[in-house]
Amino acid sequence: MKLSQWGLDDWTLILGYLFTLSFAVSKFYGYELGIGRDVWSLSHDEINRFMRVFFAFEIIYTVSIGTLKASILFFYLRVFNLVSPTFTMILWCTQAFNILNCVAFTIANLNQCKPFWFAWEGWDGRHPGYCVNLTAMLVSHGAINIALDVWMLVLPVTQVLWLNLRKRQKLEILCMFGLGIIITIVSAIRLRVLLNFRNFTDPTYDAFWLHMWSYVELSVAESHEWKCFHVNGVIASTDTKW
């Protein structure tokens, strides 16, 4: 049995897994530092450590979700590379937007406060500095991700309908790609949590729900990618013409 050569979608998927693993580590470490507990039950040092973990969590999530989307788009490029130059260009433009979105919000997260350490020490009002509106930035990133999810759902559907496959095979492939709807639903729930987060009164307790839905979103995205590999097998095993 000859194994197929790894492509960019495979490598970015592995990279996405590594980032998601680091997110999981920050998740469980964060629980030890106070996520899910009332803020007034924590000491000053514990809150500082919690804020450091939350700062890392924002960056790791942004890179993780961007990498997983990149893997799916590279997969589209491999599967639909013979469709048309126009569709290939659309995929590359979508990929470029995804990468720029990931880089832009990663840089924004890293520079959310001046000075840098004010992100985790400024909460007590004892240090000079300022931060951007973090909730607005996170909500903007979440909304763009949902729009990109919907766009990435539409792209393969427009092409599968033209595949030279039996109706049952087309339906199977559409159902596999359609699992991306679950990602969009989870992303919408996470966005709702973010919108409520701006009115939080207990940051360490409220962060639990944001952390949980972020992890669910990353896990569902990984599961969707594995389903896409099955779609590749169905298409590759068929005498497909466009």
UniProtKB/TrEMBL annotation:
Record-annotated Rhodopsin domain positions: 4-221
Membrane spanning residue stretches: 12-30, 50-77, 89-108, 142-162, 174-195
Superkingdom of origin organism: Eukaryota
Keywords carried by this UniProt record: Membrane, Transmembrane, Transmembrane helix
Compartments reported by the entry: Membrane
UniProt xrefs under InterPro entries: Rhodopsin_dom_fungi, SAT4-like
Keyword Transmembrane in annotation: yes
Any single GO CC term annotated in Swiss-Prot or TrEMBL for this entry: membrane
Membrane topology: Multi-pass membrane protein
Family: Belongs to the SAT4 family.
Protein name, per record: CFEM domain-containing protein
Species this chain originates from: Colletotrichum gloeosporioides (strain Cg-14) (Anthracnose fungus)
